[in-house]
Amino acid sequence: MLKKLKHTFKHSFVYSLGNLAVKIIGLILLPMYSEHITVAEYGIFSILETTGLFLVTIFSLNISNGMMRWWADSNDDQERKSYVFTTFIVSVVAIILMNISLQSFSGLFADVFFDNHDFTIYFQILFVSVGFDILNKYLFSLIRILEKSTLYIFVNSVKLIVILSLNIYFIIALNMGVKGIILAQLIGHIVGFLLLLPLLIKNIVIKLQLNVLGKMLAYSAPLAFTALSGVLFNMGDRYVLKFLTDDARVGIYSLAYKIAGFLNFFVLQSFQMAFLPIAYKMYKEPNAKRFFSKVFTYLVMGLTFGALGLSLFSQEFVQLFTPNNQNYWEAAKYVSLISVTVVLLGIRYMFSLNFRFSKHTFFLAVYVTLFAAINILLNFFMIAKLDIHGAILSSILVNIILNVIYYFSGKKLFYVNYEIGKVILILLLGVGLYSVSFLLNDFAFWSKMALKLIILSIFPVVIFFGGFLESIEKQRITESIRKWSNFKNLKSNLKK
Fold first, then answer.
1. 408 φ, ψ to 5°?
2. Structural domains of the chain, count
3. What percent of the chain has pLDDT over 90?
4. CA contacts within 13 A on the Cβ side of 116
5. Which domain holds residue 141?
6. Distance between terminal CA atoms of the chain?
7. What is residue 50's predicted lDDT score, i.e. its pLDDT?
8. N or C: which end of the chain has fewer CB within 10 A?
């Protein structure tokens, strides 16, 4: 089991480096956005970004999950490559149909979302960009199943350097504003696709597996619907916020989500990219259930520690990267609560695996759709009463209820003895340590920073000495610290 855990950590770490590049680019762009784009314009960009995410989720059909699931069940290399070809063709057809159906309605989208027909070109660019984004995400799934995580870093880094360079040119040199941002993203997606095209060509056999395609779609469609409902669940509140308030409030909320999203992107999504192909390959093995239980506990530890760090330093983080526009600074006070939703999302992801392994993905679609609708309805009430706090608190409440349902329903399909008691204590530890930080408001800046670092460092100390780890786990951690603290062997350790 230890070997599998190390394997999971290795690929999660490599993917996190690629995702770190995404966040670094985002951090570099934040000062530029705050300097050249108003909070209201940032809110407009957020609405466009959210709309794009909805479209990617709908028209990708989540077919890459079907490809990975059937790939894992096959030992025939030619058959696997035919699965890749079949599902890729489905993606291309879906993208063509999307653009044919939506491009003619670009003006309507502009009128409905922004009451301004001049935004038509924004949606025309967005729809093409969504198509290439779908292709990139499909090919990244191929990277995942092939476990070529270093290729992911390379492609992502080149793509993001292109996006960064074009953002600077379009926004500063040409003063294109939000239009420049989405145009840069389109070109970046095209570059990413061209870089990944050789990998696709190498791993396809031109043969349509029509006899299996129906089963793949039956497996993937509920997951696609679940993902769509998940996007509505997690991002639909931006539409409600825009409806009840204005673009500026959406901009503040979106910036807070971007900062808390560092935890989602760097930790949770990196873990998901590495873990799902591994989980599909080993869920039938004798020690699989204990493996999943330990991974669950470690994931919650990592997410809670990350959420604590972001929450403690959110104010300094926002001010550092938006130094010249204090209108953005309000976002800091929402980061801690949004970080809680990321932790809850990680917990739900692990519970959802029980449905995937048993091929009961239909239940995921039903649960998430139902609670997404409940969350949207609750948003109208909560945002009207509590503004941005209402959106976040609504999400936390519904996420907790949904996680409980996932846990008790999923254990009937594929039982894993998760360390629930230990996980609850880890969460309470994180909340308790963050609560202490409220006593630091009257301290001087550097004293406050030092004390926050002490609070953050208490978390791993309590985890190590507080009975959260088994003796073998402590032993392995100690060995790892000794190994990595020897900088003379750093190069060889990284190579391994």
1. -75, -30
2. 2
3. 15
4. 7
5. 37-209
6. 18
7. 83
8. C
Spatial contact of 136 and 186, defined as CB atoms under 8 Å apart? no
Q: Please indicate, yes or no, whether residues 332 and 395 belong to a single structural domain of this protein.
A: yes
pLDDT at 183: 92
240 in the same domain as 158: no
My answer on whether 89 and 115 are in the same domain is yes
Helix, strand, coil share of the chain (percent; to 5): 90, 0, 10
Q: Distance between CA 82 and CA 76 in Å, rounded?
A: 10
**Domain identity same for 314 and 444:** yes
pLDDT in the model for residue 24: 60
pLDDT of residue 96: 93
CA dihedral defined by 196, 199, 200, 203, rounded to 10 degrees? -170
Residues 74 and 155 in one domain: yes
Say if 214 falls within a structural domain: no
The mean pLDDT value of the chain amounts to: 81
pLDDT at 3 over 60: no
Whether residue 371 sits in one domain with residue 328:
yes
Element (H, E) at 318: helix 314-321
Query: What is the identity of the amino acid at 199?
Result: L
Q: Is pLDDT above 70 for 80?
A: yes
Q: Alpha-carbon distance 140 to 132, whole Å?
A: 12
Give 492's contacts (C-beta < 8 A, 6+ positions apart): none
pLDDT, greater one: 460 or 353: 460
